[in-house]
Amino acid sequence: MIAGVKGKLFQKDENRVLIETNGGVIYEILVSLNTLSKIEDEVLLFVTEIIREDSYLLYGFIDKNEKRMFDSLIKVNGVGAKVALAICSTFTPSEFSRVVKNREVKELKKVAGVGPKSANRILMELGEFEVDTLAESENGEVLSEAITALEGLGFKRDDIVEVIKELKASSTEELIKKALKQLASI
């Protein structure tokens, strides 16, 4: 699985970039307008892969919170990657957090491809979307990786965050092991 792509900007279009790695491989990565506006010559994009029978697509984000937002949106029934990327282009993660928290259907309907039914479904299924302040802390990368891994194992984000903020660990693996012991008793 590709978690990120680091390299030089090779080409920049309306909704995609081509990034050349040090090894000479060029990746085509679809991006939101928010990410596109922040991309400079050297870039690190956090990636979500979507593999289908007829396509293999990479979606990239400069901000881990925007990637988490995209990943949450594509899990919502009836919301595909195209609509999720349009939402990421319309709202920053903190703006989206506010929209979800305040149940602002009208704001969501402004996004191309989002009607009243899908706006309500997004708000209902996501419940709450909060910007991950843990990812911005001192051990942000370790914390963020551990949270993502534990969510992938089926644990609820609120439970994970509650347990992890009390733990100390020097690596992602160590943090996951310690968290799993505590989460097993919840």
Summarize the structure.
By secondary structure, the protein is α+β, with helices and mostly antiparallel strands. The protein is 45% helix and 19% strand. Mean pLDDT is 87; it is low at 133-138.
Write up what this structure looks like.
The chain is α+β, with helices and mostly antiparallel strands and 186 residues long. It has nine helices and five strands. It has helices at residues 33-38, 64-74, 81-90, 93-101, 105-108, 116-126, 140-152, 157-164, 172-183; strands at 4-12, 16-20, 26-31, 42-51, 56-61. It has a five-stranded mixed beta barrel. The radius of gyration is 17 Å and the shape is globular. The chain starts with a strand and ends with a helix.
Strand content: 15-25%
Largest sheet: 5 strands, mixed, barrel
Distance between the termini: 30 Å
Secondary-structure-based class equals alpha+beta
Mean pLDDT comes to 87
The helical percent reads 40-55%
Strand order of the largest sheet: 1-2-3-5-4
Q: What is the H/E string?
A: EEEHEEHHHHHHHH
* Gyration radius over CA: 17 Å
Shape annotation: globular
Number of helices: 9
Secondary structure: number of strands:
5
Which residue ranges are poorly predicted, with pLDDT under 50 across at least 5 consecutive positions? 133-138
Descriptive terms for the model:
186 residues; 45% helix; alpha+beta; globular
Topology summary:
Elements: E1 4-12, E2 16-20, E3 26-31, H1 33-38, E4 42-51, E5 56-61, H2 64-74, H3 81-90, H4 93-101, H5 105-108, H6 116-126, H7 140-152, H8 157-164, H9 172-183
Parallel strand pairs: 3-5
Antiparallel strand pairs: 1-2, 1-4, 2-3, 4-5
Helix pairs in contact: 2-3, 7-8, 7-9, 8-9
